[in-house]
């Protein structure tokens, strides 16, 4: 059995579930999800995968989850002191070392590694796994399970907007703010500036003259800030419907083209898109952290300096 930790917002959770799909399909073992970290370390975040078409989302009993969580946390801290490279468990040598102990753990958020899986009755999985390279072999299954559940009925305001998006040369423009502006994350996470979005809009307009742009962000306050500070000078509709995370995601992935922020949330919007001929524009820099983010990018993207 694999125990897979859930961390972060919906975009992060989707990468973790996608990796769990690989483990499920490749090894044929049971998958159980732990909310140990999301309950304790991710302020304001809750499990949201249940709103998607996930095939199997079985979480540990809260009592068992706490015991298992603390057990592996202590175990991981003890192994960290003995790891071959003293760099916060970054790098493949540390990953291999932990894998030998039954710990499938990667602190390289955006870097792909072919992580060895040790045979055994219980295997612990913790990481973000933010690269298509982890699950490309099972892409069809991943896309099917990570679109919004058909049981989630769309309300009238979202339905009307969805019809406009589907019947135009729609462009999803994701401007990530929210926690990126917080004191905790502002020095680690990059907010793409107005110049990036203007360049991206111009690139789309050059190739799609009839493009209609739909701006998504974290909240009403963020949308108002964007209106005041980013002058995109094109036909723009600001999506400000007080939606929950999966409602905005559904609208976003129905768009025909994409201008990404450096965010797992907009990454998934373009990945779940129905349009095989989509244009995807992405920023040249994904994070302020000293991490290799090359594997989060996809070959067909148009990269614009930021």
The first-to-last residue Cα distance is 43 Å
Tally of individual helices: 10
Question: What's the CATH class label of the largest domain?
Answer: Alpha Beta
- Helices and strands, in order, run as EHEHHHEEHHEHEHEHEHEE
Number of domains: 2
The biggest sheet, with number of strands, parallel, antiparallel or mixed sense and barrel status, is: 6 strands, parallel
SSE order and pairing:
Elements: E1 2-5, H1 10-27, E2 31-34, H2 36-41, H3 62-80, H4 92-99, E3 103-105, E4 123-126, H5 139-146, H6 156-166, E5 169-174, H7 194-207, E6 211-216, H8 220-229, E7 236-238, H9 245-253, E8 257-259, H10 264-271, E9 280-283, E10 302-304
Parallel strand pairs: 1-2, 1-4, 3-4, 5-6, 5-8, 6-7, 8-9, 9-10
Structural features, described:
The strands form 2 sheets. The chain has a 6-stranded parallel β-sheet with strand order 7-6-5-8-9-10, sandwiched between helices. A 4-stranded parallel β-sheet has the order 2-1-4-3, with helices on both faces. The chain has 2 domains: 2-139, no CATH class; 155-304, 3-Layer(aba) Sandwich (Rossmann fold), CATH 3.40.50. Helix 9 (245-253) crosses helix 10. The radius of gyration is 20 Å and the shape is globular. The protein has helices spanning 10-27, 36-41, 62-80, 92-99, 139-146, 156-166, 194-207, 220-229, 245-253, 264-271, and strands at residues 2-5, 31-34, 103-105, 123-126, 169-174, 211-216, 236-238, 257-259, 280-283, 302-304. It has 306 residues and is an alpha/beta fold. 36% of the residues lie in helices and 13% in strands.
């Amino acid at each position: 059995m694999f125990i897979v930790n859930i961390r972060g917002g919906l975009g992060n959770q989707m990468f973790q579930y996608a990796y769990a799909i690989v483990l499920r399909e490749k090894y044929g073992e049971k998958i159980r999800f732990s909310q140990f970290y999301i309950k304790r370390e991710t302020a304001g975040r809750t499990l949201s995968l249940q709103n998607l078409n996930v095939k199997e989302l079985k979480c540990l009993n809260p009592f068992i989850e706490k015991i298992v969580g603390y057990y592996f946390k202590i175990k991981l801290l003890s192994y960290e002191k003995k790891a071959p490279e003293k760099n916060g468990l970054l790098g493949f040598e540390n990953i291999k070392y932990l894998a030998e102990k039954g710990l499938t753990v990667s602190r390289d958020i955006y870097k792909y590694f072919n992580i060895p899986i040790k045979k055994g009755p219980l295997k612990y999985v913790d990481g973000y796994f933010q690269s298509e390279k982890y699950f490309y072999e099972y892409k069809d299954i991943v896309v099917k399970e990570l679109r919004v559940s058909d049981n989630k009925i769309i309300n009238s305001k979202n339905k009307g907007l969805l019809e406009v998006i589907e019947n135009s040369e729609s462009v999803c423009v994701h401007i990530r703010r929210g926690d990126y502006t917080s004191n905790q994350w502002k020095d680690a996470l990059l907010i793409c500036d107005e110049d990036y979005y203007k360049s991206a809009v111009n690139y789309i307009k050059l190739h799609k003259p009839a493009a209609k742009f739909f701006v998504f962000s974290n909240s009403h306050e963020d949308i108002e800030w964007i209106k005041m500070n980013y002058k995109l000078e094109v036909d723009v509709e600001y999506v400000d419907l007080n939606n929950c995370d999966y409602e905005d995601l559904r609208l976003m992935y129905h768009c025909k083209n994409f201008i990404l922020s450096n965010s797992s949330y907009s990454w998934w919007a373009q990945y779940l898109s129905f349009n095989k001929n989509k244009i995807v524009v992405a920023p040249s820099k994904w994070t302020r952290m000293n991490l290799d983010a090359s594997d989060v990018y996809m070959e067909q993207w148009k990269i614009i300096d930021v």
